[in-house]
């Protein structure tokens, strides 16, 4: 089987070498498409591929239609909003992710962002400590639980909410269950967001939730920019001069927010939650193993489409 590794942001060499070793030992051919400039390059390259490994690369209807032999796509990471899942199902293509492989990297970034904003972006101005503060975690999956554990180790009180987890599971994960999303925001000095971008969550975090946060609170977004109502965020920051926002992906109105609110706002230049050597390697190797297992045994454990 031909496996195409298509990455505009390439894996580290050690990860590529590991991916190649896993797949070639399983009897598969590996082709690389790295740092490609246009979506048309991916469309052309996928024509004879039977499996595809991607990172943040977009697998659209156009890509899937061009991939007549494609049987499986594995996204090396957790989020799969860059893959058209409905189109994949229509074309008979299994889509998987690699849950947990990037989790620690994202969790460490979330903690770092809290400290960065608490210390006024490391300027000489007087900052504050996160110890003793309350952290609210919105979605308590792999990343959320790790953020909570690290926060507790730093002396924070941790609350969490997750619509897919009963309260006892949140307690088992080391957090206090919040009664509601509104209560989580109203009672947290920091809220760390870990929800996917879905029709239900896009634009769901806006003015009302943000302005319900306590004085001096910080909203931390290492999830997706789409879950924030950007107009509502701007309005909240304008009315509440004590609030702060930090994100792993810049909102569309970032330049305006930065000009208006200065050190109260920060976004990384490019999404970097999973940009560590360890996460890069872990996710790539997991993707390769899942493809080898899929072709050998039919295992679809991490399938995300129906």
Low-confidence blocks of residues: none
CATH topology of the largest domain: Rossmann fold
How many distinct folded domains? 2
Strand order of the largest sheet: 8-7-6-9-10-11-12
What is the terminal-to-terminal distance?
23 Å
- At the fourth level of CATH, the homologous superfamily of the largest domain is NAD(P)-binding Rossmann-like Domain
Considering DSSP H and I runs of 4 or more, what fraction of the residues is helical? 25-40%
Rg from Cα = 21 Å
Instruction: Give, in order, the helices and strands.
Output: EHEHEHEHEHEHEHEHEHEHEHEH
Q: How many strands, which pairing sense, and closed or not: the largest β-sheet?
A: 7 strands, parallel
Strand count: 12
The dominant shape is: elongated
Name of the CATH architecture of the largest domain: 3-Layer(aba) Sandwich
Write up this protein:
The chain is an alpha/beta fold. It folds into 2 domains: 2-101 and 275-297, Rossmann fold (3-Layer(aba) Sandwich), CATH 3.40.50; 103-267, Rossmann fold (3-Layer(aba) Sandwich). It is built from 12 helices and 12 strands. Strands 8-7-6-9-10-11-12 form a 7-stranded parallel β-sheet. A 5-stranded parallel β-sheet has the order 2-1-3-4-5, sandwiched between helices. The mean pLDDT is 97.
């Amino acid at each position: 089987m031909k496996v195409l590794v298509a990455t505009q942001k390439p894996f580290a060499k050690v990860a590529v070498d590991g991916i190649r070793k896993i797949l070639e030992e399983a009897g598969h051919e590996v082709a690389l498409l790295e740092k490609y400039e246009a979506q048309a390059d991916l469309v052309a390259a996928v024509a004879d591929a039977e499996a595809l490994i991607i990172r943040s690369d977009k697998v659209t209807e156009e890509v899937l239609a061009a991939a007549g032999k494609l049987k499986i796509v594995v996204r090396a990471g957790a989020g799969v909003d860059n893959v058209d899942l409905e189109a994949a199902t229509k074309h008979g293509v299994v889509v998987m992710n690699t849950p947990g492989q990037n989790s620690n990297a994202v969790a460490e970034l979330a903690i770092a962002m809290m400290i960065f904003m608490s210390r006024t972006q490391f300027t000489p101005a007087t900052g504050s400590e996160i110890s003793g503060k309350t952290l609210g975690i919105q979605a308590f999956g792999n990343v959320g639980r790790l953020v909570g554990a690290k926060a507790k180790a730093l002396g924070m009180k941790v609350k969490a909410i997750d619509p897919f987890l009963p309260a006892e599971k949140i307690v088992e994960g080391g957090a206090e269950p919040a009664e509601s999303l509104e209560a989580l925001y109203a009672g947290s000095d920091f809220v760390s967001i870990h929800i996917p971008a879905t029709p239900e969550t896009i634009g769901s975090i806006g003015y009302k939730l943000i302005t319900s946060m306590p004085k001096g609170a910080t909203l931390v977004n290492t999830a997706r920019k789409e879950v924030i109502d950007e107009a509502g965020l701007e309005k909240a920051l304008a009315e509440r001069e004590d609030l702060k926002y930090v994100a792993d992906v810049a909102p569309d109105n970032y330049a305006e927010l930065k000009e208006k609110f200065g050190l109260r706002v920060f976004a990384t230049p490019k999404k970097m939650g999973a940009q560590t050597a360890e996460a890069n390697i872990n996710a790539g190797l997991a993707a390769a193993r899942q493809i080898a297992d899929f072709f050998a045994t039919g295992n679809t454990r991490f399938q995300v489409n129906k």
